[in-house]
Design goal:
The protein is mainly β. Helices cover 0% and strands 43% of the residues.
Length: 72
């Protein structure tokens, strides 16, 4: 399953699904995004223009539990 990149008109990159991969802020800071395969946000990291990390957040996912009801 391939993915292509597009340039966000406000600065940065997005996937062909419209998910932001990188956002460039007016002050030169960048925010990098990553996603789970289903499109939910996995992490985002904001860095200064010199590469110093300001904020890094990882989303923790709870395993989905399914209850199977078996009738007799």
């Amino acid at each position: 399953m391939g993915s292509s990149l597009a340039i966000n008109p406000r600065g940065g990159l997005c996937t062909d699904r419209g998910e932001k991969l990188e956002e460039v802020k007016g002050n030169g800071d960048t925010v990098d995004y990553s996603y789970f395969l289903d499109g939910l946000l996995k992490s985002q990291t904001e860095k200064k223009s010199n590469g110093t990390t300001l904020v890094s957040e990882d989303e923790r996912r709870q395993p989905r539990m399914f209850l199977a009801i078996v009738g007799g």
